[in-house]
Amino acid sequence: MEKDILEIEAGVFNALAHPMRLMILEKLRDGACCVCKIIPYVGGEQSNVSHHLAILRNASIVRSEKHGLEVWYEVVNPRIFKLIDIVDDCIVENLSKSKDILRILAKERK
Amino acid sequence: MEKDILEIEAGVFNALAHPMRLMILEKLRDGACCVCKIIPYVGGEQSNVSHHLAILRNASIVRSEKHGLEVWYEVVNPRIFKLIDIVDDCIVENLSKSKDILRILAKERK
DNA sequence: TCCATATATGATTATATCTAAATATTGTCA
DNA sequence: TGACAATATTTAGATATAATCATATATGGA
Q1: Which of A83, A105, B21, B40 shows a CA-CA span of 20 to 30 A to A36?
Q2: Is pTM, for the whole model, over 0.85?
Q3: Could you list the residue range(s) of the whole structural domain that residue A31 is in?
């Protein structure tokens, strides 16, 4: 039971573990968006973008809706952005720490 | 430049995208812990656990320290738990929505 | 120094994922 | 109905990842 939850969690993280999919989500920060806008934004093959959209959809991170010929995607739960923001913060923190260390090392070498 | 950040972000999510690694992090919620305690907790081969620890370490999610024969691991930034908690919440939300839908469908079928 | 213990690393195999190209599906309009 | 546009799905080859087994390294003690 507990193990099932971990598998689902891992699935969500896995869906987020690709630069193109993160880029798609950035595009969706401002709200729902047509695939025809997403493709030029992320700059990839149509089939490849579609593939990654399907992965996000299967992980229940986004949902899609048809409007005539177009398909619009939107984020199911905006809290997903909180996740990305936290990771972003942590990365910036780590980077600035590394920078400090480099600076100290540089001084010591003088 | 922007693309580099997305790659690093994806790397962090990727490190979290495995049930055993999430389980290791659960074990580390209470603080630093010896590998010898982690192995029985997650219930896997020693070398396999060690591999997964290395993946978490390479992603700067955990760090290790030797104490005699033992190696102790701890989470670098406890905010990582916030990530897991948010995903957990979202999953629970989704599941309860699905449950509601199933209930409605069941009623309609009567 | 030699041995036992704790952990890490490397090699191998099976499996999953990526990209890109081709093909299929669906909706619109003439 | 037929042709076209937007998107999805399938497929194949290349690449990456996971689990396992065998081996290596480091430490503390006899």
Answers
A1: A83
A2: yes
A3: 1-76
